[in-house]
Amino acid sequence: MAKDVKTQSGVAFIAKKVDAMDMNQLRSMVDQLKNQSSSLIIVLASAQNGKVNLVSGITKDLVSKGFHAGQLVKEVAVRCGGGGGGRPDMAQAGGKDPSKIADALKAVPDWIDKAARQK
Fold it and tell me: Domain tally for the chain?
């Protein structure tokens, strides 16, 4: 997924729909990406059985700058008709509308811009 890394406000991020069997697999993918990078925000989404699974992870350096995975995943989940939250470094959410995943992931760069301005 290294080719999927983009930058917004000087922050590297991945916001991608992936094929994952369940929430555990999504969390594992986020953990792997966090372990491979020193500075990264990750949001992965998958659709299973008509529902949306979302996991967000943020590396320690960015958490220390005030970025919060729980706030980010909540923002994305709302756009899929759901909600969620979690810790600053890892969070998960669910949604009801898989057709909105692409639009929801487009919210990630805007969220990064807004969060970076508040730092």
Answer: 1
Domain limits for position 71? 2-117
* pLDDT tens by residue, 22-71: 999 999 999 999 999 999 999 999 999 999 999 999 999 999 999 999 99
Q: Tell me how far the alpha carbon of residue 107 is from its chain's centroid.
A: 10
Q: Are 15 and 79 in contact (CB under 8 A)?
A: no
Distance CA 112, CA 5 (A): 14
Q: What is the CATH number of the domain that holds 51?
A: 3.10.310.40
Return the number of other C-beta atoms located less than 10 Å from residue 99's C-beta: 10
- CA separation for the pair 95, 107 (Å, rounded): 15
* 3-class SS of residue 40: coil
pTM of the model: 0.96
Mean pLDDT (the chain, rounded): 95
Residues 86, 92: contact at Cβ < 8 Å?
A: yes
